[in-house]
Amino acid sequence: MKIYVIRHGQTNWNIEGRIQGKTDIELNTEGTKQALKIKSIIKDYNIDLIISSPLKRARKTAEIINEALNCPIIFDKSLEERGYGIFEGQVRKLIKDDIINSNLLNNYNINLKYKEIEPLYDLCERVWNLLDNIKRQYNDKNILLVSHGGTIRAINGYFEGMDSDGLIRNPNLSNCQIKIYEME
What are the b/e assignments for 29-44, b being 16+ CB within 10 Å? Predict the structure, then answer.
């Protein structure tokens, strides 16, 4: 069983360096082009099911890709982006906050609760529960997950674990980039 993970196409907030979180931002023209390009690549993959975040940027990416796959799509809130509370919409490089600009929010052992940002444990719990359910329900299928950068970090933690200090690494997928995991 393979799990293919794709980050949604580009948005204007991606270009501006804004934190999107759960704010429901549309794809921009380039994001649509990226989804069309990945659609032409992924058409030859043996994908049985798409599970996507319901947020517009991921939903549209999944729908464009599915024009080539023509398989069922499930929109699941478990794949929504991590909530960033009061920081959503802010330009990341302009934020003068030592916690936001550190890796503390991505340390599972610390599980910092900070200024309305979804704690890492909560993010991982919802994403890892979904992955466990996929494993039980679709163990003989290849699944495409269409999601967001923060959520993909949690997916990466599920498959690749975390550092000994509890840090979950980000695979740093660009918009519409694919990462493939094997699920036993």
Answer: ebbbebbbebbeebee
